[in-house]
Amino acid sequence: MKVNNNSADFCDAVVIGAGVAGLYQLHRLRELGLNVRGIEAASGVGGTWYWNRYPGARYDSQAEIYQYWFSKELYEEWKPSERFPSQPESERWLNYVADKLDLRKDIQFNTRIDAAHWDEATGRWKIRTSQNDQIDAQFLIACTGMLSAPLEEVFEGQSSFKGKICHTSRWPKEDVGIKGKRVAVIGTGATGIQVIQTIAPEVGALKVFVRTPQYTLPMRNPKYSEEEWGAWTKQFDYLKERVRNTFAGFDYDFEGRSWYKDTPEQRQRTLEALYNDGSLALWLSSYPEMFTDELVSEEVSEFVRGKMRERLNHDPDLCDLLIPADYGFGIRRVPLDTGYLETYLRPNVQTINCQKTPISRIVPEGVQTEDGKVHEVDVIILATGFDAGSGALTRIDIRGKEGRALKEEWSQEIRTAMGLQVHGYPNLFTTGAPLAPSAALCNMTTCLQQQVGWIADIIQFARDQHKSVVEPTKEFQDAWVEHHDQVTNQTLFPRVDGWYMGTNVPGKPRRLLSYCGGVNDYNRRCAELAEKKYPGFAFA
Ligand code: NAP
Hints:
alpha/beta, FAD/NAD(P)-binding domain, 31% helix
């Protein structure tokens, strides 16, 4: 499909998405004096916090670090009500930011980018939207989200279902009407966990379809008073600096701790203290060997399993079904929960083991499993996850130099230059894309702001040099992919299936999607590139 460029609108940059990254990118580029157009598929701002309005949705980075750092005023003025605020509050926060910075006037809502083709003759992107707009832009910046392309069509027969069927990240604004109903939840990742624990007391009967059990930690979520927020604001400068320089972009870090240097008593004390923090600290700031050393992984996993057994009252069937035995703690994304495991002790909650009896299809009455049984329900909730990292980009028809297609290239192998650009696609910049720390191992606001800032800086640099086209060289990208793989191969991540490795999407090439060398390491490398005037990037 060729984008027709008759009567196209001209602008300097198009920013796709109005979530955490897109809002800030729009702001930064406007500040540089660029004529920027934001395009957003939703009817409002928020990105993840617009779409994921399922019951129980909330983030699990603490509110004091899930923040914008470019404005102390925003930090001081927006007063989170608790340590881990829920989706409605996060959506309100991003609306507040959009209003405060007067961003809305430059965002076109209810519009998707369908196609973006690089025009070698003009050195610009020709873009077509779902509203049939033709836009001609010098730079295209995809702030499309790491986890935004939902896996909605998972089972045969979905359209035959007589009741309601909802994917968690396309949850309707109006009441779904689950009260007192028979409800099926398919999927027990971070999303499924939040839904299950939230709706169980409300529904009549809940059937949870469990395939891969999940390590989970209890969240400690105290309310924040205004005074308490005032105390956090005094730490603004420290936290701003701190999150850029830790392994995962949080305020906590491994602090040079080593499993082998600590005594068994010290290890136990450390694990207990971090577990009791009720945050992700046990995962992202206990012992780094957890990610690389099978023995340490097993010991930390056993610590967590012990806690999970207690929470399940040592019920042998539930423990077998819900506690992971064949992969280590932290090798898949660790969720925080609020009474999730205890939910299974409720009389109205039933589990179906999808490893033993996989789901075969959806039928008009409900969910059919391979043993022929039909689990009759009124509502089916698909907590089946996302085509992470690459999905949001490959769902757009992006064509680079010499007509190459991103979807086609990434169906063979996913390669990027530090998750910021892709060789062969000049002037296309990406945030939350594969092969950068991003969602898997990072506090999202830390990583996204760093990438947005880096992109704004390289665009400014190009303009200062009177250059109009920026592209990473093939050698630079190859070297980064090689480094990424080397770091990955020293860890246990490649041994375990799931969205981290892209294996949740049939046919997707297997590669760890997130860079696991550390946010601090990645940020240093990005800063060094800028200091050295971007070696590895060609300017024309
Ligand atoms: P996910 O982790 O990929 O989980 C999808 C679930 O659906 C898995 O349990 C999966 O089982 C199951 N599933 C998929 N297809 C199935 C099938 N055919 N039959 C049975 N089960 C099936 O997705 P998610 O829970 O939406 O979470 C994705 C990521 O979003 C998280 O890891 C996290 O990074 C982010 N998130 C964050 C928060 C937060 O608090 N900040 C909250 C929610 C989500 P298998 O594992 O066996 O494939």
